Input
Amino acid sequence: MQAEPSGVLTGVHFMDGDHACCEGALAAGARFSSGYPITPSTEVVERFAARIPKVGGTFIQMEDELAASITLMGAVWAGAKAFTVTSGPGFSLMMEHIGFGVMTETPCVFVDVQRGGPSTGLPTLPAQGDMMQCRWGSHGDYEMIALCPNSPQECFDLTIKAFNLSEQYRTPVMVMMDEVVGHMTERVVIPAPEEIEVTPRKYTTKPPGEFFPYRGDGAGVPEMMKAGDGYRFHVTGLTHDERGYPEFTPAMQAELIPRLINKIRGAVKEISMFDEDTEGAEVVIVSFGITSRVAQRAIDLAKERGIKAGRLRLITAWPFPDYKFEELASRVKAFVVPELNMGQMSREVQRAVNGKARTIPVLHPGGAVHHPEDILAAILEAVR
Amino acid sequence: MTSELQQIETQVQSPNPNPYEEYYRTDRLPHIWCPGCGIGTTVNCFAQSLINAKMNIDKTAVVSGIGCSGRVAGYMNMDSFHTTHGRAIPFATGLKLANPELNVVVYSGDGDLFAIGGNHIMHAARRNMDLKVICVNNLTYAMTGGQTGPATPMGSTTATAVYGSYDEPFNMPSMMDAAGAVFVARWTTFHVKQLEKSMTEMMHKKGFCFIEVLSPCPIMYQRRNKQGDAVDTMKMYKEKSKIKNGCPTFETMMYPGGDIVVGKFVDRERPGYIELMRHHLHEKLGEDFINEGVPVCA
Amino acid sequence: MCYAICMAKGQIKIIAERCKGCGICVEFCPTKVLELSSAYNAKGYHPPHAVSPEKCSGCALCGIYCPDFAIHGFRVKEETKDASRA
Output
């Protein structure tokens, strides 16, 4: 369906990624946010707090990220589209509730504008060190969907996509920005509402008594409901049956957890999005987020030297597209993986490639973006 | 079923159902609480209060945290949420803000609400968020085996204080009063009629309401502290409780072996969070303020 | 037992399988109608039974106290009492 016009600021704007992310949320239909300030994400909710009274909805600044990350889920269960934003230290605090959202199949969006870490780290400088955390940060087994914008325009577009994926798969979805993408100001085109595709919530039409809130459809995704409609449903973080009632047995665990995981893992080809140019490539540069823009410079420099350098930009970092790497590994010599961390997604690439080609990470502890020359050096090494 | 049991069940024939049955998920009974645990008693009072206050059950939601008292949500026949430890109140805040028509009740325990959840309960009271909070205080972290909690009387033997605890507990009514709650009461599971009455009043009271209910915990608390079984504790409640409605909350602290001050201590008016938010935004933005709450997403 | 129905102002109903034998209803019944029985339910607890059912006033305190929702009481309607006398 199309976007609700009241939230769409149609026009050509000059705005930074944080602001564009907020506009993306509004365009997607988000009308509730519970936030807590943390650099460099704060502007997302500051803008939301200023915009929402005029769009129609509520923002509340909670007392900490522990509260913010679950208040939004209460709003979701009352029927709202909701999200929150944070950065490293706050992301760590939100982990328990991300897991709660996965377990209770609460559709919602979490935005992490990554900064230097660990701990307090570099509040005002970029990194991409939360990529594994976004996948594994909560305890237990689960799958995750994460999107990585590399421009303010993508901050707008991919935030909408994140909301759509969260409704489609009835799960929390992460938008993994970084401080540079969040604070860089660029042209952002916000189309007319009719041109924005928004996925509606899969509200059930079954009457109370016939509806099972945790019974998956053919794709393993249950329908949704909200409080106040007479369903008298139960939502719990405990392992539960199709009615949502706790059932602590190995049999129930064996039924529930694989369904939660497979509804996403099984749809990896539908969910994955790439920006790809690998035709005839001998080496593929795999990157995401802000690093991809530096990587493009390195690719261009390599091509000038006659190297058949290809690009694979991961727009979705999770679920990890093993299939893509299995296919590419059969026709390229090496993968160069620059990332603003000490080796996170490059490990995934190495795992998926499984020895069929070389994986050369280009690591960086964060604080600034790579120098293109460092990535070029790795490309040269790859074709040596 | 043995013929003896059959005799008990049919001893006196009755067509009159238990008025509380329709409020419970009877397919989940018998519940997990220990013999003599008072949580079930508080739940009966809660059901009665819903009847008395003529609440629309389809518009009532129960939110619990983790712990024995946190299991209440699972047994109530209404929209119920068993959330994470300490975070029932922020979840309930989100539910209420997104649909103010819902009557949101938070049902949890002393540890969940005042230790890990301490920050959240204070802020919700400060904001005067329209939530009805029932804190079942069994003086311990019962579910995990009886560890020391923020309500454990000094000197108690607990699972993490095998030589006796040496810190004082919170005075919950005083904290809630100081944080700004508009309705504060304390009862015990002996005081079923008064508890029922306070819960009934609370249902229609706007703003952050808090009721502390002392409950026996025969297995995890009393057994270690040689305080007998549930009946012994109930008799102690009867003997030691002093009803002092309107008592200043700083005088309601409980000391080991001392009197238990019970009653309705605070019942006042303060503008609620949602009311204040709407009024303020309307004042500042005039017609630009879209005062329709949080729309239900399509 | 017509005698019991004619004399008591109230009646009780017990769901034996829910009872955990805590004894609260026995202790706090104002007219001492109940005692724990010697029967066992499936979980091994002794549910109560009415040893003096004629004393039941229908106050329903047992029902509000019972932490296990295993007993409730109610007042008998005047018409029922008359009918049973007839």
Residues 1-6, 79-86 of chain C have pLDDT under 50 and may be disordered. Chains C and A do not touch (no CB pair under 8 Å). Residues 78-85 of chain C form the longest helix (8 residues).
